[in-house]
Amino acid sequence: xxxxxxTGDGFKVRDLGQAEQGRMKIDWAESRMPVxxxxxxxxxxxxxxxGMKITGCLHVTKETAVLIETLAAAxxxxxxxxxxxxxxxxxxxxxxxxxxxxxxxxxxxxxxEFYWCIDKTLEMKPTLTLDDGADLIFSVHNRHPELADTxxxxxxxxxxxxxxxxxxxADGALRYPVIAVxxxxxxxxxxNVFGTGQSSLxxxxxxxxxxxxxxxxxxxxYGHCGSGCALRADGMGASVIATEVKPTAALKATLNGHRxxxxxxxxxxxxxxxxxxxxxxxxxxxxxxxxxxGAIVCNTGHYDCEINLEDLEGLAxxxxxxxxxxxxxxxxxxxxxxxxxxxxxxxxxAAEGHPSEVMDMSFANQFLSMVRLASEGGDLKPDVxxxxxxxxxxxxxxKLATLDAGLDELTPEQVAYDSDYSAGx
Length: 425
Ligand code: ADE
Prior knowledge:
Layout: E1 6-8, E2 11-13, H1 19-30, H2 34-46, E3 53-57, H3 62-73, E4 77-81, H4 90-98, E5 102-104, H5 111-122, E6 128-131, H6 135-143, E7 153-156, H7 159-170, E8 178-180, H8 185-208, E9 216-220, H9 224-235, E10 239-243, H10 247-255, E11 259-260, H11 263-269, E12 272-275, H12 285-290, E13 296-299, H13 309-315, E14 316-323, E15 326-331, E16 336-340, H14 346-349, H15 356-376, E17 384-385, H16 389-402, H17 412-418
Parallel strand pairs: 2-5, 3-4, 3-6, 4-5, 6-7, 7-8, 8-17, 9-10, 9-12, 10-11, 12-13, 13-16
Antiparallel strand pairs: 1-2, 14-15, 15-16
The protein binds adenine (ADE).
């Protein structure tokens, strides 16, 4: 990994020389994000975010670049860092820096650098924060609490982040209102399921190029993300095994045609493992001890705590990088276990994250939440707030129109019927 950087006033990225390539990727994303481009046109005219200072901490991808440039076009001043050490697309970061965005992000940073970048972005003294995984909000609360006095509100992109922020709000520890972007239907029902499903398999295939047909594909956690991975692996001919702690989710997996087992049993038969639980220690030493020779293990949950790599390091005799994002651990008995992307988000570290088409809706929710906070954030109490239903329907409506889908409308008689409690057999 190169340790040279391009730095300047308001940015530190890997190599500004990659800017042209990054700009072409951003152009590509723009052409597949019609809802965002629609919002950009409308809010450039309205300047809805004029005077706002937005600090963001979210994967630096071509889709995020479209979000950043839309926020800026609506009048906001921006400062950005990536929310995972391995997910930054260096060419995209370069293109953003070259076009004047304040950005501190490069692929392969260590934990100390990760927090240094967040601290640099907070120097702007934001009025709004935009998070994926809540590391930015935690940094404000734990290390820069004085900034919370002037922050109007924030947003959170992911399931794990929202979960933690709700716990923080329940404890009375949250200092400003946060909108749970993850919980919008046009986010979780598409991004988490179809986005994670496709991009995680994309990451596994780029890192291994294995045939999935006929393989035992173990999905730990059958929530929205896990079920998306199961759906796509099933579609490619793998035999899916789900592991769960929640009876309803396990039941759903069973009725979708998957086997449900304890991880202790799945470990012995799995060929490919993916964790999508948001919980730590899903795959630990005793599982590695019973895995087959050649087993492939990866994670698509936000944090890298789901696979206990310390246990594996302790058991393995040696390790080597055999392909990009693929490390081979040699066990004492000669078995080889392959870990992808160091147990970090395989879809963003080994592939490019979710496709632009789904991020279009997720980021429309981010953008509209920023606009809402800018105008009414001062009236919201410090808690986790939901996306309004109308916003979900608006975003879905615009997206549908771009997909050339026809939508029926209720007649006045049907509208009346809908609320007629005297109607029956
Ligand atoms: N999370 C998952 N996929 C993503 C993408 N393409 N861009 C930003 N965040 C993401």
